[in-house]
């Protein structure tokens, strides 16, 4: 027995005839607990009782309001990147994260306050003195503890009364759960394939721009400050990171490219189907590692290895940027390049295979990995 050794334990038949409150007091006595005061805080249905219920319910209603607001902001607020020169659009973009964080935080805060208020204003009033005991509880202790918990719920009126409180609690739990799950489920709300062949997962900002007169303009390779790149800007054996020369190009998460100038005496293999993607000794490959999307930004000039610092994947620039070490399983996509009339590098077209990791490892839409010496037929 856990405590209260001098308490007489009733038989099973006697226990079946006892009320939940009697079982509760018996359980307390068996644990060496004296219930000095125990019972409902207010007379059921009294003005004080209804006032306490409304006071608790308001916190759960606020939880629901802010939870729904967080979910709505996550889905409908404009969250696409805007530069500092975008005026009101940039202001709205800048408010996205603070607003989602504030509303979700408020929802969690009000739910916590509601639970505390529920315990202080609705749960039965109890003053107990308990003696410390050691050891496991036996069967009678477990039964009486269960009865105490059920009796507490009964005295709170959560089963037969308190419709407002129950409704607000369900509303709060549902809204808070929605606000918690929406970041996970948000990606399923809109179809990523709604634009067909032009869907965001298939194209990058290297795709030629359609002008108002319906003609197309090829996208220049530019440095991060927007300066276009000429062949003379890259030294033999060198490398430079370039971005699409369009609005937002330097901030596009899938458009960063490594532009290499290999030495003319290098033995280069060309991936099948990508002949002519290079311009002389200049080759352009996606900077996005095909493992989990880190920037593959390190380069060993002598070995021709492109290294990703996150998980040590390595790609051979002399053989179509195919993976030769580490967890990456796909080559880095190659960007077809040429010069425009002014002598600047431009992308002849977008990548012919998807950029990035994970999803694309099914090889859907990608070119076979076979390669052949530069200048020979596949």
Your description of this structure?
The protein has 378 residues and is of the alpha+beta class. 32% of the residues lie in helices and 16% in strands. The protein has helices spanning 12-17, 20-30, 47-76, 88-121, 139-156, 163-185; strands spanning 33-39, 125-130, 209-210, 216-217, 221-222, 239-244, 257-261, 269-271, 282-286, 298-300, 305-307, 314-316, 322-325, 337-339, 345-347, 371-373. The strands form 6 sheets. A 4-stranded antiparallel sheet has the order 5-6-7-9, with no helix packed on it. A 4-stranded antiparallel sheet has the order 10-11-12-13, with no helix packed on it. A hairpin with a 5-residue loop joins strand 3 and strand 4. Helix 2 (20-30) crosses helix 5 (139-156) and helix 4 runs antiparallel to helix 6. The protein is elongated and about 100 Å long. The chain starts with 11 loop residues before the first helix and ends in a 5-residue tail after the last strand. The relative contact order is 0.10.
| Gap from first CA to last CA | 85 Å
Low-pLDDT stretches are 362-367
By secondary-structure content and strand pairing, the structural class works out as alpha+beta
> Which strands sit side by side, in order, in the main sheet?
5-6-7-9
Fraction in helix? 25-40%
Outline: elongated
Order of helix and strand elements from N to C terminus: HHEHHEHHEEEEEEEEEEEEEE
Topology (SSEs and partners):
Layout: H1 12-17, H2 20-30, E1 33-39, H3 47-76, H4 88-121, E2 125-130, H5 139-156, H6 163-185, E3 209-210, E4 216-217, E5 221-222, E6 239-244, E7 257-261, E8 269-271, E9 282-286, E10 298-300, E11 305-307, E12 314-316, E13 322-325, E14 337-339, E15 345-347, E16 371-373
